[in-house]
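By way of example, we now present a protein record of this kind:
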Amino acid sequence: MAYKDLREFIGKLEKEGELRRIAAEVDPVLEITEIADRVTRAGGPALLFERPKGSRVPLLINMLGSERRMNLALEVSHVDEVAARIRGFLDMQSPQGLLDKIKMLPKLAEIGSDESGARGFSCRRSGGANSRISQHAIAARAAR
């Protein structure tokens, strides 16, 4: 099942020990960059800066910055699972007859279904329109 929203994914990261919250006010110009750089180089967790100086909006950095966090986002044990699914969809052949078309229906239903493994986050933009960030696109890039 896909995460309902970014908050739910942040909760998952926190539960798995893959997120560190930073409650202190931190300057986004140089301090956040330096902190994030040091934590990333050390293989550390994602960082949630709760009070960036000059902003009322928290800042999440490096949420997909490790293979483990990528797997958590995609809800798989390894990103190769997603790459294999994408290859399977890309390798589909056009059906030749009625029997081939009928055999293809379950695969097409899987593509169109939310239960297909099309993991992602439902997000609300400032305009109020729902959008879906496809994690398959991220996995495809990671597989390259």
In short: The chain has two domains: 19-65, 66-144.
